[in-house]
Amino acid sequence: MWSDPDDRYGWGISPRGAGYTFGQDITETFNHENSLQFIVRAHQLIMEGYQWQHANGVLTLFSAPNYCYRCGNQAAIMLLDEMLNKSIIQFDPAPRHQHGPEGKAKIKALPDYFL
After folding, report:
1. Is the CB of residue 11 less than 8 Å from the CB of residue 22?
2. What 3-state class would DSSP assign to 27?
3. One digit per residue, pLDDT tens: the chain, 115 residues?
C-alpha cells in the first residue's frame, strides 16, 4: 500500500510526493467491506519500528533498523500465533563500528547507492 494514513478524513495528496493519504474513515470502510480487523503496511520510516493509527485499524511496520546507516531508528516485526494473537518485537540498530584486528575500530563503508 503506497498511500499513507493521515489524521485528515477522506483522501489527500501525499506530502512525500507519490501516492495519497487516507483518513480513518477510509480505513474503517475498507476494513469493514473486506472483513478485516486491521491493515498492515510498510514503506514508511517509523522511528520506533512500528506505529498503530486510526484506532488500531492500520499498523505500519518498518523492518530496517538504522535505515540507510544514518536514521538511528528501531525495526519491528509482528508475530501471530495460531489463534491470531499478535505481538510486536522491536530491534535496535546494530552498532555502527565493528572491531578489527588489534582491537581497533573499523568503519563499515556505506554502499554508493545510499549516498
Report:
1. yes
2. helix
3. 579 999 999 999 988 888 899 999 999 999 999 999 999 999 889 999 999 999 999 999 999 999 988 899 999 999 999 998 999 999 998 776 555 555 555 555 655 554 4
Provide DSSP, 39-102: EEE-SS--TTSEEEETTTTEEEE---TTGGGTS---EEEEEE-TT--EEEEEEPPPPSEEE-GG
**Sequence letter at residue 52:** W
Segment holding 32, helix H or strand E: helix 24-33
Q: Which helix (H) or strand (E) holds 5?
A: strand 4-5
Separation between Cα atoms, residue 23 and residue 13, nearest integer Å: 12
